[in-house]
Structure formats: structure tokens, C-alpha cells
Amino acid sequence: MHPNREEVRQKHQEAPMDEQGAPGQSQTKKEAYRGWKQGQVAWEEYRETVQAARDQFRKAKALVEISLARDIKGNKKSFYRYVSDKKRMRENVGPLQNETGDLVTQDMEKAEVLNGFFASVFTGKCSSHTAQVTEGRDWENAEPPTVGEDQVRDHLRNLKVHKSMDLMRCIRGS
Predict the structure, then answer these.
(1) Where are the beta strands (DSSP E) in the chain?
(2) In angstroms, how far apart are the furthest CA atoms of the chain?
(3) Where is the composition biased (Basic and acidic residues) (predicted)?
(4) For the stretch 40-57, what's the b/e string if a residue is b when 16 or more beta carbons lie within 10 angstroms of its beta carbon?
(5) Measured CA distances, 27 to 31, 166, 170 (Å)
(6) Main-chain dihedrals φ then ψ at residue 131, nearest 5 degrees
């Protein structure tokens, strides 16, 4: 017997989880951070609170995925809804500033600006400009944030080169 739509809807209307932790935990985490910054809470206590929130979030996420796996047997659309919710992406990249300082809004032009910028990191050519992202805020009154070559180099230097290969081994079961 298949569950009716109302039963399935009620099952999936649990308290939403956020990036900060499981439901209700994010406030405690924020309070601990605020207390630590003000010097009222010790670093160890703050770390314990953060780790407890992460553990609780992982467990809650695992439970959601287990219940999803059970529900898929009776209602295959729930899986596709879950997948489409998980892969929400940003519509596009905001306007970028090219070498001449002009704002670039077309997708192909943005791709060229980003490609040139990141390629300069690998080729060693010193570019005279920094890529500027103007998305998400009104930058007319303030200076937009800039990303310099040295920052990109630092991030690239700290990347784990074999991380994706380890992930593929785990997926394949080797």
C-alpha cells in the first residue's frame, strides 16, 4: 500500500537543518562564538560546542538520507526532489572588472576574464590587474573586494592534489 501524499508531505516537513548545525543548535553555537570573542568562554569549551554541533548535524543528515532511501521504494519522486534541492546553484557570476577596468557582464567575456586571470597563475605571467567581483552588494559607495594573484597562489598551494583521486577510490570501493 502506497502512502498518500499528505503522509509523505508530513514526513518531510521536519525542522530544517542549516549549515551551522542541527535544528536549534545554531543558536547555541553562535552564543558560544560570541562568548569566546568577548572572552567569557574558554577556547576549549567553544571547540567542544562546535564539534558537538557538527556531530549532531552529521547524525541528523544521515537520518534524513536513511529515511529518504526508505521512502524511495514507495515514492520515487521524493528522490528526484531531494537531488534537485541539493544541486541548487547560483544562476550566474556577477559582473567582473577586466584589465582595462571596465565592468564585464556577458558570460563569454566573464569566462575570458576569469580564464586569463587563473591562467596567469599557472603560466607565471605577472598580470597587472586583480579580478574584482561586484556581486551581492551595491558597490557604488564602497571599494569592491579584490582577489590578488598571491591569494590565488596560496590557495592553490594548499590544495590537496590527490583528494579527488581518493574520493574516486572510495566510490569505486577499491
Answers:
(1) 96-97, 103-104, 131-132, 146-147
(2) 67
(3) 1-15
(4) ebeeeebeebbebbeebb
(5) 6, 35, 35
(6) -75, 135
Q: Is the pTM of this model over 0.90?
A: no
Condensed to tens digits (0 to 9), the pLDDT of residues 105-141 reads 888 888 888 888 888 777 766 555 555 555 555 555 5
Contacts of 130 (CB under 8 A, 6+ apart): 146, 147, 148, 149
Which grid cell is 10?
Answer: 508530513
In one letter, which amino acid is 110? K
What is the rounded distance in angstroms from the CA atom of residue 147 to the CA atom of residue 133? 8
CA distance 77 to 9: 12
* Measured CA distances, 87 to 13, 82, 129, 135 (Å): 19, 9, 33, 21
Rounded distance between C-alpha atoms, residue 168 and residue 174, angstroms: 9
Amino acid at position 152, single letter: V
Q: 33-37, 138-142, 144-148: which has the minimum mean pLDDT?
A: 138-142
Q: Residue for cell digits 571547540?
A: 47
Locate the domains of the chain by residue range. Answer: 5-86, 96-157
